[in-house]
Write a structure and sequence with these properties.
The protein is of the alpha+beta class and 375 residues long. The protein has two domains: 177 residues, no CATH class; 177 residues, no CATH class. The protein is built from twelve helices and twelve strands. The protein is elongated, with a radius of gyration of 29 Å.
Length: 375
């Protein structure tokens, strides 16, 4: 059986190569779309998960940073600092705005911070240390041909770019980091600040004293300061991802589903062509006593070999395609190297190969040995 399978595979090497390439192309499509979906969710949850605090205070009723605006009166900072178990509270201002140069416009998310809440990874340069400075997402800077040391206008004010951040972009809003004082000045003339006397913040980053139960501090803050809801960074990230999935999750799921359908069709057509080409040999094997079950094993074995070679090649090509896409469009992250994506795609490819073997198996089962001798 193995010898016959081996001889069949090397019978026409050029056709085998084309078959493997076709399956690899289908795998690349699946892996890239799966990787794009996973990368999008990772980008959305990246900022909250990189906040080095135990709790985050938001406006009551606001559960995330995506698709919502949180406004907290400035006096809530002192109120939260006075709660037993709270070690430090750092204010944060976050606001979606539109960055523009000439006729080009891009939605961005402004982060105003003091010492906590800034970029967690720098591609180049340094963090913000004074008003009038900003750190810009690397992909955004590249899109507008900006670099460290250059001036750019933001919020009606000229800023100097002192750093370029990495892993701070998404298809919704790349991040731009500025000094808290600049962000507060912007809010002081915006419509949100009218809801609070004496200025306002968006979020409160809360560090809990060592040895103190985080859950108890959370309950105490919400009880003492009703205008503040308290969440953990992981919960805030999960809420943001849930909002994004509600907005575009079904569309991305449809694209991934189409990719799997294309994969099944490609593998099915590849196996069908391979089996059809060798129907005469199957007829001879039947004529000399081979059972259908043995021929079925051959077809399944061939399908798994094709799928295995196609998956291996497809994974390698996917890594290159993902890197190329990220280089061409840094705002999009395709995590084709993610273990979950590769495992899911590999299992799916095996299932696709087995499912696609149904038609060739039915074709083999219908071969009449008598036709071999008539031909």
């Amino acid at each position: 059986m193995l010898r016959f399978l081996y001889r069949g595979l090397i019978y026409d090497r050029s056709r085998i190569l084309l078959s493997v390439l076709a399956i690899a192309a289908a795998i690349v499509l699946v892996v890239v779309l799966e990787g794009f979906k996973v990368g999008l969710w990772q980008q959305i949850e990246a900022y909250p998960q990189h906040l080095q605090v135990q709790l985050i205070g938001t406006q009551a009723g606001v559960t995330g940073m995506t698709g919502a605006r949180s406004v907290l009166p400035a006096d809530t900072l002192e109120s939260v600092e006075g709660i037993p178990g709270v070690q430090k509270v750092s204010p944060l201002v976050g606001s979606p705005v539109v960055f523009s140069q000439g006729d080009r416009k891009t939605p961005i998310y402004i982060i105003g911070y003091e010492d906590v809440g800034g970029p967690w990874r720098l591609q180049a340069g340094r963090n913000v240390t004074a008003p009038g400075e900003l750190v810009m997402d690397y992909g955004l800077a590249r899109k507008y041909n900006l670099d460290i040391g250059e001036q750019t206008e933001l919020l009606g004010k000229d800023f100097q770019i002192v750093g370029l951040s990495a892993e701070t972009s998404s298809m919704f809003n790349p991040y731009v980091f500025i000094d808290l004082e600049d962000a507060m000045a912007f809010l002081s003339v915006s419509e949100i600040s009218q809801q609070a006397d004496g200025g306002s913040f968006s979020f409160l980053l809360i560090e809990v004293q060592p040895g103190v139960e985080v859950f108890q501090v959370r309950k105490a803050i919400e009880a003492a300061v009703p205008v503040v809801d308290v969440t953990t960074p992981d919960e805030l990230a999960a809420n943001d991802v849930a909002v994004a999935k509600g907005l575009i999750g079904s569309i991305i799921g449809l694209l991934v589903g189409v990719a799997y359908v294309v994969g099944i069709l490609v593998i099915g057509l590849t196996l069908y062509a391979s089996v059809f080409e060798r129907l005469r040999e199957y007829g001879i094997m039947k004529a000399i006593g081979a059972r259908n079950s043995r021929l079925y094993q051959y077809v399944l074995g061939q399908a798994l070999v094709f799928a295995g070679a196609g998956v291996a090649l497809g994974f390698l090509v996917s890594l290159g395609v993902a890197a190329l896409m990220t280089w061409l469009a840094p705002q999009y992250l395709v995590v084709a190297w993610d273990g979950e994506v590769l495992l899911r795609s590999g299992i799916a490819a095996t299932i696709m190969a087995l499912a696609a073997s149904v038609i060739p198996i039915r074709q083999v089962a219908g071969v009449d040995p008598a036709t071999v001798f008539r031909q």
